[in-house]
Amino acid sequence: MRMIALEEHWGTSVVERALQTVGITTPLGLPAIVSQKLKDLGAGRLADMDAVGIDVQVLSLAGTTGIDKLPPADATAVACECNDIIASAVAGHPNRFAAFAFLAMQDPESAAAELERCVTSLGFKGVMINGTTNGLFLDDPRFYPVLAQAEKLNVPIYLHPAPPPSTVYEAYFSGLPGNVGNRLSIAGWGWHVENGLHSLRLVLAGVFDRFPALQVIIGHMGENIPFSLARSDSILTPVASHLERPVKDYFMSNFHITTSGYFTLPPLLCALMVFGADRMLFAVDYPFSSNTVGKAFLDNAPLTPADLEKIAHANAERLLKITN
C-alpha cells in the first residue's frame, strides 16, 4: 500500500546562520544524528524511507524558532532561499518528495506573495506555520493576506507547534529540575495544548467564516482537540454567538489531523471517533520520531482496509493534490 507521510522535517545551515544574527546560536540543541538526518535530502533519507516502505515525504523546514526576530526583509530573503533549496531537492526526486513552504510571517504581504510563488512556480503543496509570530496567533487580522492566499490557491496550512514565548515559559514551566521544564514546555505537553488552543482561536475569531474554504492541518493526533472537543463545543458555542455555526462543526469541515509522533492506540481511537478517517492522515515527524515505529503503528492499527487506505495515502492525495 502506498504511504505518504506529511510532517517530515528538514534543516539547513541557512537558518542557523540567520538565527545567529539575532543571538540564537543553538536553535534546536539536537543530537548529532538528528541534525545530520535533517540536512540529508538525498540517499540517507531515501534509505530510511525505503527501509519501512514510505513512498513520499512532504518536507517542512525545522529549526525556525526565532526567525520572527529578524528584520522583515532579511527574514523574507531567508524564506525564499530555503524554499529554493527544498524545491531543488523535490525536483531531484519528484516521486519521493513534496514540500510545504516556509514563510516569514512578520511581513504578511511578502509572505503571501512567497506562498503564491511556491505553489504556482515551485509546485509546493501548502505551507507550514510554526506557532505564534512575535507573540501573535494566526487569527490576528494582520495575517489575513496569508490566509486569503492559501484559500485562493486551495492549499492547506499545516499549523505546527513552537516553543512558548518567554513570559509563558516563565509562568508555566520554570522552577523544575534539570531540563524537565523545557521538555514539558514542548513535546512533553506545552506545545500540543498551545497548538490546540491556537486551533480553537482560529475558530472563535471567525477565521473560517471569513475564509470558509481554508483548510488547516494539525499534527500529533489532533493536539488534544479530539479528547476535548465535545466539552469545548458545549461551553464555547453558546457564548460564540458571532459564529455562523457551532464550534465543533468547523473542526469537521476545516481541519485535518495527522498521526505524527503519536503511536499508541487510545489517541488513535479517540481521533477516529471524533474526526473520522476522512480527516486523518499519516505522518511520522521524521527525524524526531522513528519511521520504523510510525509505520509499524499504522500497519498494526485496528483499521478497516478502507480507512487504512484513506489515512495512508488517499486523503493526502486529495488534500495536497499529490498525483505522482
UniProtKB/TrEMBL annotation:
<dbReference type="GO" id="GO:0050150">
    <property type="term" value="F:o-pyrocatechuate decarboxylase activity"/>
</dbReference>
<dbReference type="InterPro" id="IPR032465">
    <property type="entry name" value="ACMSD"/>
</dbReference>
<dbReference type="GO" id="GO:0019748">
    <property type="term" value="P:secondary metabolic process"/>
</dbReference>
<dbReference type="GO" id="GO:0016787">
    <property type="term" value="F:hydrolase activity"/>
</dbReference>
<dbReference type="InterPro" id="IPR032466">
    <property type="entry name" value="Metal_Hydrolase"/>
</dbReference>
<dbReference type="InterPro" id="IPR006680">
    <property type="entry name" value="Amidohydro-rel"/>
</dbReference>
<dbReference type="Pfam" id="PF04909">
    <property type="entry name" value="Amidohydro_2"/>
</dbReference>
<keyword id="KW-0456">Lyase</keyword>
<feature type="domain" description="Amidohydrolase-related">
    <location>
        <begin position="43"/>
        <end position="321"/>
    </location>
</feature>
<dbReference type="GO" id="GO:0005829">
    <property type="term" value="C:cytosol"/>
</dbReference>
<protein>
    <submittedName>
        <fullName>O-pyrocatechuate decarboxylase</fullName>
        <ecNumber>4.1.1.46</ecNumber>
    </submittedName>
</protein>
